[in-house]
């Protein structure tokens, strides 16, 4: 008589070299433990995931594992069919062979410098991470030092940096650098998520150009060390980095109202609007007139010159007002990543290189996960884990990913390209501890230690509390 990993008793017939759930003394099957009975999947869980596709049924195997029946094809499978629903699991990964080829070429050209220390130590306080990092990074005169192994330490915390703390440093620093509260960046007119350079940053911070150079260095360090920034910029930002012209179409995703106005001018005769080659520019409640070209206030807009007008408006809106800030940013960025290497990417690829994928595809995540400590893809606890992940919002999935890997971003080609401290390292779930323990993370190895919980709800509660209370390391990272 033995006990299976799920807690159910089974019996070994050494004569036949076979195992069975049937008790030879009574002829009856052993009972299924309460924690894996069908009732453990709560109605809340089902509501969060939505109904199964038409013709599908969920059942519990005699060993407690959940499986699914497709009555349309008369087949069974372990994987929840809702994993294939992009509305639940997230969009598919936009795999790009061309991008991968470019990325591999970039990495091959970013050679490690000679005659520098083995590592660059960064000791910062969590509550002062922006100023501490600015002081440390800006004081470096020889930029090659920033290309050495990063060794990050948070003041007052125990934790050895095998790569996880460095990723967390980039993640937390991104939150501060790009926070509109500091006046260096602002949200675009379309949403409160994509960022653009604040043209009035000099009013908010007299040292703003030094900060933009610092931010450029951080962005360059992230690309060099294969890390991601926790921010997304408007498309014209990436085009400016590449030195590419910005056109009317680029404005649509940034300021749709302004775009529609310019589009109307382009498609109609604007003479009756009585506009000139000047604009009203507002700054902190004060409005001033800005000429788009010399003596622009006295040049009327006509059907003949409207294309020039549109071009000058776009140049003013995206380029001329923030040119000094972008120049400072590029001075810092290009010191680590030469312009010739940056320009092999287009603006879409550059966004993915710097910031990764915004949405998380759970199916891709699951397909690129390793299991240890007698866990496997069909283990009941693992099934519960993925069901919890499916029930999470994209934001909560990002927080789980950040808890385990140190970053909330997914590399361009998906989870198969996750990196750990020693190179490529898939997301890993390992059995550890007892049901009383909370899950713990090893960010340098992209591994979560998941105790063998007794129910779906217990796993969900413990995991959520671990994620929400994860800031700071105690022991291994």
TrEMBL record:
Pathway assigned to this chain's UniProt record: Protein modification; protein ubiquitination
Compartments where located: Cytoplasm
GO biological process: imaginal disc-derived wing vein morphogenesis; negative regulation of Notch signaling pathway; negative regulation of smoothened signaling pathway; Notch signaling pathway; positive regulation of receptor-mediated endocytosis; protein ubiquitination; receptor internalization; regulation of dendrite morphogenesis
Disordered: annotated span: 25-44
SMART domains, sorted: HECTc, WW
Enzyme class: transferase
Residue ranges of every copy of the WW domain listed in the record: 1-26, 50-83
InterPro entries: E3_ubiq-protein_ligase, HECT_dom, Hect_E3_ubiquitin_ligase, WW_dom, WW_dom_sf
Gene Ontology CC terms: cytoplasm; synapse
Residue stretches making up the HECT domain: 142-476
Keyword annotations from UniProtKB, A to Z: Cytoplasm, Notch signaling pathway, Phosphoprotein, Repeat, Transferase, Ubl conjugation, Ubl conjugation pathway
Keyword Cell inner membrane: no
Active site: 444 (glycyl thioester intermediate)
The organism's place on the tree of life at top rank: Eukaryota
EC number: 2.3.2.26
The reaction(s) this protein catalyses: S-ubiquitinyl-[E2 ubiquitin-conjugating enzyme]-L-cysteine + [acceptor protein]-L-lysine = [E2 ubiquitin-conjugating enzyme]-L-cysteine + N(6)-ubiquitinyl-[acceptor protein]-L-lysine
Keyword Transferase assigned: yes
Principal subcellular localization: cytoplasm
GO molecular function: Notch binding; sodium channel inhibitor activity; ubiquitin protein ligase activity
Biased composition (Polar residues): 28-43
Gene3D superfamilies, sorted: 2.20.70.10, Hect, E3 ligase catalytic domain, Hect, E3 ligase catalytic domains
Protein known as: HECT-type E3 ubiquitin transferase
